[in-house]
């Protein structure tokens, strides 16, 4: 989750204005990250793993759209 938090801060720290669609997708990614923390706290590791992967996938799509590097992606 640390890598997710660092990555989303980098996107949010951009000087350019983010479109409503990008902001919506960032919120969706944040929601999945929050879900992951919830399931982790409940001891449901498979669901926690799945939800953080959704969060990373959405965030990677946003990063690619903004021309930023996507962590772990192969070009």
Using brief descriptors, characterize the structure shown.
single chain, 75 residues, mainly alpha, Substrate Binding Domain Of Dnak, Chain:A, Domain 2, 72% helix
Number of helices: 3
Give the tally of structural domains.
1
The CATH superfamily is identified as AF1782-like
In angstroms, what separates the terminal alpha carbons? Answer: 24 Å
List low-pLDDT spans: none
CATH architecture: Up-down Bundle
Question: What value does the average pLDDT take?
Answer: 91
SSE sequence, one letter per element: HHH
Rg calculated over all Cα atoms: 13 Å
How would you sum up the global shape?
elongated
Q: What structural category arises from helix and sheet content?
A: mainly alpha
Number of DSSP E strands: 0
CATH top-level class:
Mainly Alpha
| Portion in beta strands | under 5%
Helix content: over 70%
Fold blueprint:
Blueprint (H helix, E strand, L loop, with lengths): L1 H11 L7 H22 L3 H21 L10
Helix pairs in contact: 1-3, 2-3
Walkthrough of the structure:
The protein is an all-alpha fold and 75 residues long. The protein has one domain (2-65): Up-down Bundle (Substrate Binding Domain Of Dnak, Chain:A, Domain 2), CATH 1.20.1270. It is built from three helices and no strands. The protein has helices spanning 2-12, 20-41, 45-65. Helix 1 runs parallel beside helix 3 (45-65) and helix 2 packs antiparallel against helix 3 (45-65). The longest helix has 22 residues, at 20-41. 17% of the residues are buried. The mean pLDDT is 91.
């Amino acid at each position: 989750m640390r890598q997710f938090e660092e990555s989303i801060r980098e996107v949010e720290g951009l000087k350019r204005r983010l479109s409503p669609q990008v902001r919506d997708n960032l919120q969706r990614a944040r929601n999945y990250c929050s879900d992951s923390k919830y399931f982790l706290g409940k001891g449901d590791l498979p669901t926690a793993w799945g939800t953080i992967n959704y969060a990373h996938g959405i965030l990677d799509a946003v990063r690619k759209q903004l021309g930023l590097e996507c962590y772990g992606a192969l070009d």
